[in-house]
Amino acid sequence: MSDESAAAIRQERDWTTHHREMYLRSGGTAGHVMDIRDVGGHRFTTHCLIRVKGRKSGRTQIVPLIYGSIGGEIVIVASRAGADQHPEWYLNIRAGDHVDVQVATQAFRASWREPEGEERHRIWDYMARVFPPYLNYQKATTRHIPVVMLTPGESIDVFTEADLQS
């Protein structure tokens, strides 16, 4: 990873923490739609929160992520700004059977899957239109950036800051 990529990830973490806190404190009324044109995105970019347990630490992680929606499934991308390692949240999703997801003021327990082949290619193209920097992120790394599909199931309570204490 280059110094430039490492700096971008540090800056992204600060923004991510602020974004997560805003989303949690508002119950999802703020933080769902964000103007991220300053980082190559669009004026109305949708964001969800995912909540996973750390596969090693057992601690709860809540992460805001850009998402798309295809056929009733929520699509997220494990880009980590083009770093050579997968994001921790992605590794934690892979270690479990489900993931909790919040979209605006609604939260669900969701099953997950990774599309393959032509489906994955089609979904990747869609997500690159949702957030064009994904294309540069893929060019910056030799790893295959994962695309994850979440299928919402049972409704659950929206996430709170107290969830981070568990």
What portion of the residues fall into strands of 2 or more residues?
A: 25-35%
* Structural class designation: alpha+beta
- Which descriptor suits the 3D outline? globular
Name the helix and strand elements from N-terminus to C-terminus, one letter apiece. Answer: HEEEEEHEEHHE
Summarize the biggest pleated sheet: 8 strands, antiparallel
Residue-averaged pLDDT, rounded?
91
Number of beta-strand segments? 8
Low-confidence residue ranges: none
> From the alpha-carbon coordinates, what is the Rg to the nearest angstrom?
15 Å
What share of residues is helical? 25-40%
State the helix count. Answer: 4
| C-alpha end-to-end distance | 32 Å
Describe the structure.
It is a single chain. With 166 residues, the protein is α+β, with helices and mostly antiparallel strands. Helices cover 31% and strands 30% of the residues. Strands 1, 2, 3, 4, 5, 6, 7 and 8 form an eight-stranded antiparallel sheet that branches. Strand 4 and strand 5 form a beta hairpin.
